[in-house]
Amino acid sequence: MSEVIFDSNDGVADTSKKTYKEQKESGELSRQASQVYEAIKAMPLAAVTINELSNEALAGWEKSTISGRLGDLRDHDLIEMAGKRDDEYSGRLSKTWMVVE
């Protein structure tokens, strides 16, 4: 995965930067990204929302963690936004994600 550069005036807390760096160095971010990728592939719907992932395939995961890994996967052209539709859990219009074939 590409290196993320934090601007000192970016509004991101130092503790968040430290945690991100530690997780990246330990391989935790790559492991999480792999799990999110596999979860999307295993879902019965062709395109899924964050809520659907967090309530089904990745139950117990924080939505912010899933969102971060979706961004990483998107940045590496492994997934793409498939559009928007009503989320099965919230009923709200939500982005959907799918694996790039």
SSE series:
HHHHEE
In total, how many beta strands?
2
Number of helices: 4
- The mean pLDDT is 87
Describe it.
The protein has 101 residues and is of the alpha+beta class. It contains four helices and two strands; from the N terminus they run ααααββ. The chain has helices at 14-26, 28-42, 50-57, 63-75, and strands at 79-86, 93-99. The protein has a two-stranded antiparallel sheet with strand order 1-2. α2 packs across α4. The longest helix has 15 residues, at 28-42. The radius of gyration is 14 Å and the shape is globular. The protein starts with 13 loop residues before the first helix and ends with a strand.
Summarize the structure.
With 101 residues, the protein is an alpha+beta fold. The chain has four helices and two strands.
